[in-house]
Amino acid sequence: MSKFIKHTLSIAMLSTLAFSTAAMAQDEDKLSRGTLLNWSWGDYTATQASMDEPLIGDRPDFIEASTTVGLGVNQLEMGWTFTDNNDGSGGKTYPELLLRKGIYAEWLELRLAWSYAEEVTAAGAKTKGSEDMSVGFKIALTAQEDNAPETALILEISVPSGDDVFGGDETLPTVMYIYAWELDNGMTLAGQTAFNRAIDGGSGDAYLEYSQAIGVGFGLTEKMGGYFEWFCMIPDGAETEVQQHYMDGGVALSITKDLQLDWRAGFGLNDAADDFFTGVGLIYRW
After folding, report:
1. Cα distances (angstroms) measured from residue 204 to each of 57, 166, 170
2. Are 243 and 272 in contact (CB under 8 A)?
3. pTM for this entry
4. Angle at CA 172, nearest 5°, toward 158 and 162?
5. CATH number of the structural domain spanning residue 201
6. What's the number of domains the chain is made of?
7. 240 lies in which domain range?
8. Distance CA 17, CA 10 (A)
9. 218 found inside a domain
10. Contact residues for 24 (Cβ-Cβ < 8 A; gap 6+)
């Protein structure tokens, strides 16, 4: 999730702030920074990632960034999230580690993620443990060209490495498609569609989960951007899991060109969703 701080530090929104445009295709001299494909057969000039570019992260929003970090670039993203419900249940997750490394080409990055969770039920029972680690790749597919969006594809799997209460007993794949537009008014619009295999917490059986998000990002100051988004998770074939819908927003502050801090808060839109959540985090690039 942080699609902000691109040029005027536009934070991507929802779906999570996924979308500062790393490559805008111009009508005349078309530029495409590290994309695997182009929308047209026009002449594109490929540009290489630079450490002087604004920092673009996958946090704190639900939507992932529609760009890769660039060949040879490393980026560490981490955070802490607190969840609270009216019935007294809740929990927290940390350190929400995501390591992104540009490999092979400008349009490809390797991704490793892991976190730890603590939960409290309405009855006061406490559970904590490691979540499954995930590994995958992000592919920058296209740059924005006219009304055609900047797009990216994430392919990843979670491996059964966590504690039983928070991890699955099998490898679970995820496919995620991200699309974003930089608008004329300096704002950004982004969306994300994903499908993943998940484990039902009640029955222990696997099911297909669909998620959708849409968001908008905007600049607040030269070094700060904000976002709002809506996202949902919809299970198919689950016995006890039900739909969850959320809205959230947040801000990101650029401390240096390679260090960014963020804060977010949101709430559930239906009974099955968590009532409230908030979190902070940071991104460091080298």
Report:
1. 33, 12, 11
2. yes
3. 0.86
4. 45
5. 2.40.160.40
6. 1
7. 24-285
8. 9
9. yes
10. 31, 143, 144, 182
